Amino acid sequence: MTRPLAKAAAVLLAAIAAPASTANIYGQYFGPNQYYWRVMHMPDFDQRRALGCTGRVGLPNNGAMYCVPTSTINLAAYVANRGYPNVIPGADTWSVDTQARYNAISNSLTTLGFVMGTQPQTGSGGGTVATGTLRGKKAVFPGAQFAITQVLATNLYAPRVQDIAFAGMSGSLVNLAYGRYEYLSTGAGQFIQRRTGGHMVTGVGVIVTPSARLLLMRDPADDASNCTQSPWRDRAVNPVDRFFTGTGSLAGVNRFMTEVGRTSERLSLIDSVYYIRPYFGLWSTGANLRGVNDTIVMRTPEMYQPNPGPSTKTYTAPFGAITDFDTSADWLHHYVLTTVPGPFTFDRALWRVDAFTGDWQQIASNFRGVRVKTGRQREVYVLTTTSVRVYEFDADPPTVQTTVLPAGVVGSNMTLDDETDQVIVYENANKRFHFYSKGMAEYLGSYDLPGFVDVVGSTSMGPACDGSFVFASEGVSTIYRIGYDPDTEQWSLVQAILAPQTISPTNVTFDDRCNVLFTSNGVLGDLEFVPDVGRWRVATSSPLGGTPDITGRFVIGRSRTNIDPAIHDDEEDWFNIDPDELDVGELIPDCLGDVNGDRVVDFEDLSLLLADFGQQASWLAADLNQDWVVDFDDLSILLANFGVACD
Fold first, then answer.
1. CA distance 643 to 408
2. Cα dihedral 193, 196, 202, 206 sign
3. Does one domain contain both 28 and 162?
4. Is residue 571 situated within a structural domain?
5. CA angle (559, 160, 146) in 5-degree steps
6. What are 393-410's pLDDT values in tens digits?
7. 431: three-class secondary structure by DSSP
8. Are residues 574 and 469 in the same domain?
9. Considering only CA atoms, which of 185, 81, 175, 167 is closest in space to residue 134?
């Protein structure tokens, strides 16, 4: 049978040329109209698991609404076989269907569905789309090893194919969901009226050339309800970016979206993604004003096997010293303040840096910038000595709104709280914090540090795990945690964090483990709280603790979400689609003998196999039968299909 999209995949891959590989993840970037990302050997577990099968565990409603847990377990099994065996369901030869493996996956899906709040008739939608889905993914991918960011479509932005590819090539694994939308197409444009359910899949490939584009997914609903695991295969679609205006329940929407399917009655549009990547941090070299053409270093301590890391990427400023920076909630951009050449010492330039390509775009210059912070809903805050600028880069054209600080206030530091969406500005002269609502829309009040708290030298502050924040000054060896009491409606100093390592602390913040991170004399410190003794101590296990030569700013990669309950928790819209109603794309079986994912079995695949021959591991790209050893069985598969261009 001829499969047009499979043929297209082979043609596109041939046009791009041989990709580079990391941990069975292949990718190359030639320019904005020609790039390639491909994940090989991604599991493709079935969500539909019938009840009543002898010796086999099924799922409620035969798993019809279990696309979210199943697409998550695909990623979990992938990383478990590539250096993280503690991640459920654990390491195993998952492509070989046995009763024990089938039941292990069914049991994992049952447990994860419970954590996510998956309902047999409606799925993981409604009020659980934020709390349940993200909570479940965090349970599978622990904060000590991974960061997770949830990006849902907002009025001005929806994740698109390019975002997915760049995230994948940068080290993220991807779950994506497409929503089903009622629409109206007129001469005035494309209008979407209502979301009527969605479906989550596992992203495994994007192929882009000047003439065509292809998106590849592992679809958990690609098989009828039965008692066995179906063969692994991709679902391929031709994605198209279009601009949509919302009407009805979607009034206010003005955004580009990626269309992956269309009928006379509805559109299928990508409207949410989850990026999951190993724990990482970023820091700048150079000592603020003492540096010249500083560099941001992005370090991931432990990548996926067979290239376990650490992985390092650098971004060098076009000019000047980096005085502050932050990374966006989806990790696709960095926002950087640098010094400006010239006689004015305090002038700054603001840059937007593409985290994948490394391109620097100057946004503003010659202003007294102090701090830059990214909001969880893609807004960017820049503190100057007298104001806070709020940038919205998703608007067309991008907008900036300036809020002047109270009279006499000289801003010296700033942080954001994701739980309350508050902006917290610190002024050093009065040791006072000023609180604003999201977007600087409303002034909420202030809080003065107690008189016994000394502030000496430069200050740093960052968010904590529970809606509180941490604060320190370089000349005092104590980190303070400041929290809000809803009963008294007052802010107060709730904890003094003191340890032998907190000497001249800078860059204070919390990570997803609720550990305190800070730098001291250029070395990253990592403290964990011990409830039994009520004290902080050096973390017994730390992915980045002890990292030296952090002479500038430090930012930790945190799990974040842009959820807006007003948009995303409508139970009538955010439910799962029945698998029998899905009508997107074309199924493409995995290509036997294809090691590098270009859907052609040739000498390149043979070379890769011979390089791995005799090795035993769960992550080998040339392990074609997935039995954890590259041997004559794999060679036989390759030779039997040599010269084949899969369709």
1. 75
2. negative
3. yes
4. yes
5. 20
6. 998 889 999 999 999 999
7. coil
8. no
9. 175
